[in-house]
Amino acid sequence: MTWQGTGALTVLEAVQEMIPTLRGSGVETEKRRRLLDDNIEALEKAGVFRTAVPERFGGLDLSVHAQADILAEIARGCASTGWVSMVWISTAWIASLYPDLAQEEVFAGGSVRISGGFTPSGTLVPVDGGYLLNGSWRFNTGVRGAHWNIHAAIVTRADGSHEELFALVPTSDITVADDWDVFGAAGTDSATSTAKDVFVPAHRVVDASVYDASTGDRWNADEKGRNYNLLSYVLATCAPVYLGIARGALELFIDRLPGKAITYTSWTEQREHPHTQIQVAHAANQIAACGALSQEWLKVIQGRADRGEKMSVAEKAAVRGQVGYLVRSTKEAVETLYNISSASTILRSNHFQRSFRDISALSLHGLLTATSSLEAHGRVLLGLDPGTDYL
User: What is the pTM of this model?
Assistant: First the structure.
């Protein structure tokens, strides 16, 4: 499978040129607890926030494979920037599943940043022409810098039944708390957003059928092959962030080794010590193996979309399990390098320690933890139902 095109390569090359800047501004990003405006502008200029926007609105409409490669490079420079970019890009793709009128509003500028609170911690009340939205959503990554935000909320129907809906609103209609203060992924500004009696027109509210984007009724279904299974797509855009963090950590570790002694020993060059050599090789191969594994699920996801087919339960479970495996393995690779680092590694001016903290924090994401992901995959491999709807 090939994804390369002029637009994709242009974005990728621009992002690669930004890596020293993203890495160098990591300390300030953490202090601010959100992405620097200059870095957002640079990503905007590079076309990053056009990658998932439909072509008919001036977007690049790139494949999931291209998006994954771009996100991995951003995360190689800065984990927080990679995570926020992933959220803004993947949620923009989700917005492409909304009715045409909503898409015309959201994608009017050709480039857009969209965040989302997908835990249904709000309510929607039907009113004339739409709904009133109320609630608060924690861990709403990048919402302060987004143009739009998707809110999962519960509506109570006339018969007393409950349904989960997804309301798309401008961020100017909501408030954002200053409550993001964490030890890792500190620059993601994953703060709490709150909506109070926000009117949402009916065309900007969809039901859970959004989880199955492979219905073939999207405007570009046959032309572009972008009808991905939603959860598989989201997982496939999350995974490259971890991969990029690990690749960056390996680079940073190796770059610091020349001339570095092992304190309180006779070793004047740590890189000449066999244990260091073995551990570095182990981490490098673990990261490389994860990169190779990711190519397999990208092929499956894109191949199904290109053929207009739905993914099987086995395929979706494999994506879930393998992404969980990647998250655990890349974290372990970074930990391996951390465990053979010198004490000076803990200085905040050392970019490596931030990679260690960032991947540790992000590995706790409920959808991406290895235990639940591998359980679902293992159940299907053993002929059982997956035991979860999150496939």
Answer: 0.95
